Amino acid sequence: MVVEITTRTMQAEAEAIADAACILTAGGLVAFPTETVYGLGADATNGAAVARLYAAKGRPRFNPLIVHVADQTAAARLGKFDATASTLAAAFWPGPLTLVLPKTDDCPVAELATAGLETIAVRAPDHPVAHALIETTGRPLVAPSANRSGHVSPTTAAHVAADLGARIDLILDAGPTRVGVESTIVACLSERPVLLRPGGIARAAIEQVLGQPLGEPAPTRADAPQAPGMLASHYAPISRLRLDADMVEPQEALLAFGPGLPPGAAHAVAVLNLSPTGDLVEAAANLFAHLRALDRSGARAIAVMPVPREGLGEAINDRLARAAAPR
Ligand code: TXA
Ligand code: MG
């Protein structure tokens, strides 16, 4: 007899959130929705729980995690806010912005969660379920995207179940996520804040609040990256991606953007459009689900139409480039 072990998925209502908080307090792993993507949560103060989380994801140990908190007051127990960091938190929290800050001296977060760094990444997610879970658990929660390391991030509970299956204790389901790409990461460690990862808040919106351009990260080293999730081949689906395609070749699927389709589209193995109207916010929300679906189409490769680089287009192009990088 074949016994199939599957993870429980529960609609994210009050009772399920209470169950989830108990599991987290006991050191378990719970996938939950945020406004960006689904996260795989663990108690950030429990080193053993964090170790189980790395194992479930199959994540290289040097990849530090984002610690999720309710608000800036909670974040200030973990990281030191300078004036710039406070300005950014006031403007964008709760929301898809992660701040990398110097760790406080009595930071309760497990050393493993920050991979032994002197800095810590914190964010206050803008999702009622994430917020309720953090408040009910009463602890900061680490939550990397709830996918196996190197796979695309999950934007539905079904994606989480497909990728992490029986490796975790519970999945809270609250439907598809709104933003669809991960948070923007900004390091506030010196005079000038630095953009480490483009994401759900556009660079221009941050620069407008700051009144100055964001700095660029120093070139990353493969062994000690600044934001190690930025490894070139991160976010890889299985099929080959062909970027900036102006036509569809035989046996390709098409990831389209905007109203007009390129020559050859009629013969594509499958066609999905990130946004038929050319809306970059809609495109970000659809990105990972469409990549997954086209990956399953059996196509030889996925032709990807050009996506403009302004606004959320910066994050979309970043994720596409990583998914296309040779492995
Ligand atoms: O939207 C998001 O940020 C999602 C949801 C679930 O909140 N989370 C997410 O986590 O994308 P993850 O683990 O997939 O990506 C975390 C990124 C990695 O690139 C990691 O290297 C970077 O944050 N990071 C964490 N701590 C850091 C630190 N102290 N310094 C620099 N980068 C850091
Ligand atoms: Mg991730």
* CATH architecture designation of the largest domain: Alpha-Beta Complex
Give the strand order of the largest sheet, numbering strands 1, 2, ... along the chain.
Answer: 1-8-2-3-7-4-6-5-9-10
Give me the count of strands: 14
Tally of distinct domains: 2
Arithmetic mean pLDDT: 91
Strand content: 15-25%
Q: What Rg do the Cα atoms give?
A: 19 Å
- CATH homology superfamily of the largest domain: DHBP synthase
Distance between the termini: 38 Å
- Note the overall shape: globular
Number of helices: 9
CATH class of the largest domain: Alpha Beta
Instruction: Work out the oligomeric state of the chains in this entry.
Output: single chain
The main sheet comes to: 10 strands, mixed
SSE run: EHEEHEHHEEHEHEEEHEEEHEH
CATH topology of the largest domain: DHBP synthase
Keywords for this entry:
10-stranded mixed beta sheet; 14 strands; alpha/beta; 9 helices; 327 residues; Rossmann fold; globular; binds magnesium ion; DHBP synthase; 4-stranded parallel beta sheet; binds threonylcarbamoyladenylate
Written account of the structure:
With 327 residues, the chain is α/β, with parallel strands linked by helices. The chain has 9 helices and 14 strands. A 10-stranded mixed sheet has the order 1-8-2-3-7-4-6-5-9-10, sandwiched between helices. Strands 11-14-12-13 form a 4-stranded parallel sheet, with helices on one face. A hairpin with a 6-residue loop joins strand 9 and strand 10 (194-197). Helix 1 (14-25) packs across helix 5 (128-137). The two termini are 38 Å apart. Bound molecules: threonylcarbamoyladenylate and magnesium ion. Residues 144-145, 153, 229 line the site of magnesium ion.
